[in-house]
From TrEMBL:
Family: Belongs to the cytochrome P450 family.
InterPro entries tied to this protein: Cyt_P450, Cyt_P450_B, Cyt_P450_CS, Cyt_P450_sf
Origin organism lineage: Bacteria, Bacillati, Actinomycetota, Actinomycetes, Streptosporangiales
Protein name, per record: Cytochrome P450
Top-level lineage group: Bacteria
Known cofactor(s): heme
SUPFAM superfamilies, A to Z: Cytochrome P450
Record-linked Gene3D superfamilies: Cytochrome P450
Keyword annotations of the record: Heme, Iron, Metal-binding, Monooxygenase, Oxidoreductase
UniProt KW Oxidoreductase keyword: yes
Alphabetical list of PANTHER family matching this protein: CYTOCHROME P450 BJ-1 (PTHR46696:SF5), P450, PUTATIVE (EUROFUNG)-RELATED (PTHR46696)
Record PROSITE patterns: CYTOCHROME_P450
A GO MF term: iron ion binding
Amino acid sequence: MSVNEQVLNYPIPSDAALEPPAEWAELRGTCPVAHVTLPSGDQATLLTRYQDVKQVLADPRFTRLLNAPDAARLSATEDGGLFSSDLAAIIPDSGEEHQHWRRLVGRWFTAKRMTALRPVMARMAEDLIDDMVERGAPGDLKASLGFPLPVYVICDMLGVPAADRDRFSYWSDALLNLTRYGKAEIDAALAEFFQYMSDHLAAKRAEPGDDLLSELIAAGGPEDGGLDDMQLLVTGMSLLVAGHETTANMIGKMVSMLLADRTRWERLLADPSLIRATVEEALRFDANAGFGLPRYLTEEIEVSGTVLPKGTTVICSMAAANRDESAFDAAAEMDLSRSPNPHLAFGAGAHSCLGQALARTELQVVLEVLLRKLPTLELAVPAEELERVEGLAVGGLRTVPVRW
């Protein structure tokens, strides 16, 4: 039976952690607008072609707020987690209000700000790598570097004291891992995190610093075009969660891709000027990118000749779209010098990832520091033995065992 005639279960499993499911190519070729069943049992429509995914993601009418009565539930435990809770509704999700919020917060995520942060990031990465080396090989690159670095960076941006970083790591983990923790644990973490951020904001009001939250407070309240207290609090919490798990996982996956075929690593050692293009190619080539972006259609739309009625929940698979041969030459090859590389890893249009300059900078810095400090780095297990993390909204590897 071909993919056209069946309703696939989504997410589609893959045999190997770094490889795409075989169904992607078949879907792009013969069934680009496919019916799928989500973990909740609800039906949705899956898009896998580059043009279609870009079209829906770039359309500002379609938002990710899936609280309409006829929207598909993504998972059976939809009451947990940050983005499906009441907190998610506090930051405006569409229209002029959303753009205003993005402008206020986005000032902290410009390329210029990221350049200023680079030396701080590099120092953090060096310290974490030194700690891993001190503990001895084999090490777990994900736990030692991938996981803590983005938390340390976002804590620095929010003005959170270094001593509190590990508490932040735990809260971020609990709020994103809907399957690893029970509801009581998630609720407790949310309450602690909420209380911490309230106290942290009060301290910033009393003694502002050179950080994102102090600047947002200085912009004034809603009457001055700024954010109210609750929006400030949820912005701080959301930036930690959104900016952490995806980048933490991407660090591990990127290094694994480069070490899975070590000629790639050798090429970077010989020519570090390829680091920037390599990061973009790793983002495009990532076959384990997680769920994709859900969108709720508030009106009828035509995609690839198929009319999708109002009320449809669409899942945009950016990872499948990034392997589309019609958009990328030799799409199944990892080409470290690919240019241009208009991948959709960060989405497209008005809702494209606010923190993409931050993620790019972190990934570039990680490669720069690893190539310099651990040129002999290699995977400590065969690439086919790497295991995916299940039950997460974002894709990732369970561990990244390395030696040097």
